[in-house]
Amino acid sequence: MTFFLQQVVNALQWGSFYALIALGYSMVYSVLMLFNFAHGDIFMVGAYMGFFVATGLVTLGAAGVLALPSWLILALTILMAMFLTSLVGMLVERVGYRPLRGAPRASAALTGLMIGIILQTGNLALLGARRQTFPGLIDVTSYKVAGVIVSNKALIIITLSILLTLALHQFVRRTKWGMAMRAMAYDFAVVPLMGVSINTIALLTFGLGSALAAVAGIFFGMAYPVLEPYMGLLVGWKAFVAAILGGRGSVLGAGLAGFLLGFIEIFVAAVFPSTLRDVIAYSIILVILTFRPYGFFGEPYSAQLRL
Amino acid sequence: MDTEARGATAAGPRAAARRWTAATRALFGEVPAFGWLLGALAAVLAEYFVGRPLARALGIGRIPLLFGVDVALRDPWLLPGTVAYMLLVYALPAAAVARLSVTVARGITERLLRLPVGLSVLVHLGLLYAGLHLWAGINDYRLLVTRLALIAIMVTISLNVVNGYMGEFSCSHPGFMALGAYVSSIITVLFFVHDSVLGPPLLPTAVGPFLFPLALIAGGAAAAVGSLAVALPSFRTRGDYLAIISLAFMFIVKSTIENVQLIGGSRGFMNQPDWAGLPTVFVWAVLCVAVTNNFVRSTLGKALNAVRDDETAAAHMTVNTRRTKMVAFVFAAFWAGVAGGLFAHVMRYVNPGTFGVQKLAEVLAMLYFGGLNSVIGSIVGAVGFTLFSEALRPLQIYKWIIIPVLLILVMIYRPTGLIAFREFDITRLVKPREKPGKVEHVAAAD
Amino acid sequence: MSLLRIDNMTHYFGGLRAVHDYSLRIGPGQIRGLIGPNGAGKTTIFNLITGIYRPTSGTIVFDGQNIVGLQPHQVAAMGIGRTFQNMRLWRHMTVLDHVKLARYARLTYGLMGAFFGTPRRQREEAETEELAYRLLELVGVARFAGQVVTGLPYGAQRRVELARALAMEPKVLLLDEPTAGMNPEEMLQMVQIIRRVHKDLGMAIFLIEHRMRVVMDLCQVIQTLVFGQVIAEGTPDEIRNNPQVIDAYLGKEVVT
Fold it and tell me: Which structural domain, as residue segments, surrounds residue A203?
């Protein structure tokens, strides 16, 4: 039982990354009908942004220029990384995807793949192949509850991830912008009628998604402090699958599917050799999609990747 | 921007370009494919005999391996010498021979046409192979690149069947290649090679090269069976979800192989016999192009287009859509498997990491660069992309910024690729050309 | 002896009754019409016949064989051709390929022929092409044969669609509003083409129409459908004078 609960905690933490990234995928996918294959690399960019901000603040503190409490550093890191990464995301939309609006969707998907490669290579060219170590922002304390070890780090990650998922859900349901996004998911033509431009909504969608990916990146850096240019491939593709698994147009679905994927992987790794993790995780996804071809919360729709 | 103004400024260069095109047409319009092949052979022969001394005389030291791009990128000061080499060795002999041989070439082409078309095609292919053989024979690197380009053609064309002709966005091609590569490698190594894990050969090595096609076909068949995992769901779902299913399939194949220690796991599998020489790869590539081209131009093959453009309408016009989808996936997977097998035997080493997202990006890039729904587009895309990506090697990692940027530009300006939706009529290719100015009769499909 | 016989066919979409107790008899070579206001369930009846939907209850017998539960391509191959209200052409394909493709089920060369170009394939493809040209000439669009359909004028696209359905050599041809979106001149041409096709090829025709003139001109017997139910059946004159029909449908449009 303790073992099980411990795995639940691990799975929640591991699923947090997937969930936060999947939210961004799912939003872009729902609103723009676009596979944003660059999103995993936006996650990588977010992690690096967090790394730079955090390292900068920590260095300033060590030099005695600007000594901030650690919680403030963490908060500032998250906020600034969110801001910077959303700028990158919006740039990607503006430069890479906007010219392709109305083009075949497969072309946009390929463009996404290429943007991802550019981001990876750009990182490699700028920073070199050296791996970066994410600074430890908070003093880790572990609590033992009923034999289960929970660190304050894990608590922060899990709580904030769940809160962000719910917040985004509310945003999409309640605000004018969220309504416009949802309307666009149904029909492009409707949005201009609401007095909002498609391009604005697209930028907003990319900005929000990228900001969430940045949070995921920072959390990932806090949990597994090694950063490298290809880290987006590893987590990003699975988060992408989770987003689709959640179903088109469902924020909550994407979040839940992200956590579900975390559970699948952690429990597979707990029972089987960890090398089998991917095989089994993807096989489960394949089976789920074969029987529920529109994901958990998605509705059947006739759209296809048209030429 | 004012479009009229743009039109006006473009008129000058455009008119010049038109004049230039007309002049070229007048000179070379009558040159049949046969003549061009003769020209290419002449260029290659020129390189074979005078390439080395000429390169030395021009100060570039050795023969430029990939049309000079590699040399010029390594040292920009060598650019003039490289351009001169290209003109003297390739452009001049090719153009001269093509132009001068017009009458001879037409005579031969016309005589050949009296024989069955297949024979005429074979003669052309023979000539093409001769040129390719000499060109690739200059050194090992060229030989490798040539074989990889031919394999890339097979992969791209087979991917085009599903993604272009049938309009699904399948991401499973690297998986099919991996299945073909591993199954054929296991067969050849198990039966014909003394391997530390799989033991001594079960059959005499001497018969190996003759049974090699069977190993490749077995690899293709394995991929074809694997493709059912994607083909069967395609009956129920299309588009995005099928794309995810195919993606999951690719990851499953890759990570399954990583887990089988007997064939090396993630370390890879080696010791494949060296049987995939240029002739072998060439023959398979030609076979793949011919069969695929036959298929997509038949009415049964056109059913793929109908399923893509409107599945319901297709079913109402008696098209068995399930059979069509099944055939497309199995067919594409088979050729991807054969290509994977050849790839394994060219590299004589495979590892599962080869068949991941990077490979996927590469094959999709070749397909969309060349053009959807077009056999000739796939050939151009595969060869162009392979050569280009090899030629940019001196740029190191910056290559991976330039290539993606170029591809994005292609996507923005030609979203379906450079040569999309074009039929490839081989019989028309081997016919003598009309004199320029005459109206060309567009041969009706098939 | 009826070629197509539908008895007591009812169909529900979820809880919604789309078609109720529908029956139909069409003999070889007859022309039947089906009229009714928008949303009356006319196209649903076509979709039930061609196998897109499976009727909740009732029987459909074609050529002496029960076709309920067959796949659309099987129904089509048995000899039920159709056109669509919104045409459903294949947007990247040429006019000629449209017509040739409708011969799919009649081609016998199989995959070997498709892959290796056997003599049998050459022969069958040549025959198919000849037939396709004949049909394109019959409907008057042969000059577009090599073009991609999307570039054609609307009227020509309609004719291509008709030729495509004819290539199946159907025994019954279902036409779903063949003059939709046409101007009066195009409409008259279309009526003439349908007449010519019927005279030359002699199949039975079942026609959905919105425009009274077209149905009245072409059909011997007309059914009127309202809310999924047939409220009247008879000759054009009977329909025109039926008070129920005038009330439910014609009242508004009888002037046109």
Answer: 2-291
Count the neighbouring beta carbons within 10 Å of the beta carbon of residue A191: 22
Find the CATH number of the domain harbouring A68: 1.10.3470
C204-208 and C31-35 strand pairing: parallel
pLDDT at B445 over 60: no
Helices (H) and strands (E) in chain B, counts: 20, 2
Mean pLDDT of C63-79: 95
> What distance in Å separates residue B163's CA from the closest CA in chain A?
9
What's this model's pTM, rounded to 2 decimal places? 0.91
* Residue with token string 């060795």: B89
Q: Is residue A127 domain-resident?
A: yes
The label of the residue with tokens 């996507």 reads: B411
The pLDDT tens digits for A215-227 are: 999 999 998 888 9
Whether B309 has its CB under 8 Å from any CB of chain C: the answer is yes
Please give the tally of structural domains in chain A.
1
| B250: closest chain A residue by CA | A282
The domain locations on chain B are 19-116, 140-415
Degrees (nearest 5) of the Cα angle A59, A65, A67? 75
**B266: Cβ contacts below 8 Å, ≥ 6 apart:** B258, B351, B352, B353
Paired strand residues for B41: none
CB within 8 Å of A36: residues ≥ 6 apart: A24, A25, A28, A29, A97, A112, A206, A209
Q: Domains in chain C and their CATH numbers?
A: 4-79+170-253 (3.40.50.300), 89-153 (no CATH)
Q: What CATH class is the domain B140-415?
A: mainly alpha
A243 within some domain: yes
Q: What are the φ and ψ backbone dihedral angles of C102, each rounded to 5 degrees?
A: -70, -10
For residue A307, being part of any structural domain is answered with: no
Confidence of residue A300 (pLDDT cuts 50, 70, 90): low
Cβ of B317 and C92 within 8 Å?
A: no
> Which DSSP string do the residues of B287-353 spell out, in sequence order?
HHHHHHHHHHHSHHHHHHHHHHH-HHHHHHTT--HHHHHHHHHHHHHHHHHHHHHHHHHHHTEE-GG
The shortest CB-CB distance from B361 to any of A35, A113, A285 is to: A113
Cα–chain center distance at B152: 5
pLDDT score for B1: 38
A80-98 confidence digits (pLDDT tens): 999 999 999 999 999 989 9
Angstrom distance (rounded) from CA C25 to CA B304: 36
H-helix or E-strand containing B248?
helix B240-259
Query: Does B237 sit within 8 Å of A111, measured CB to CB?
Result: no
CA pair distance B336, B343, nearest whole angstrom = 10
Q: Residue B24 half-sphere exposure, CB side, CA atoms within 13 Å?
A: 7
Give the pLDDT band (50/70/90) at residue B431: confident
CA-to-CA distance for A54 and A48, rounded, in angstroms? Answer: 10
Q: Which of B160, B296, B318 to mutate to test the interface with C (most CBs of C within 10 A)?
A: B318
Rg over CA atoms, chain A: 19
What is the ipTM score, two decimals? 0.93
Reduced to 3 states (helix: H, G, I; strand: E, B; else coil), residue B238 is coil
Q: Which residues of A touch B233 (CB under 8 A)?
A: 289-290, 293
Residue A187 lies in a domain: yes
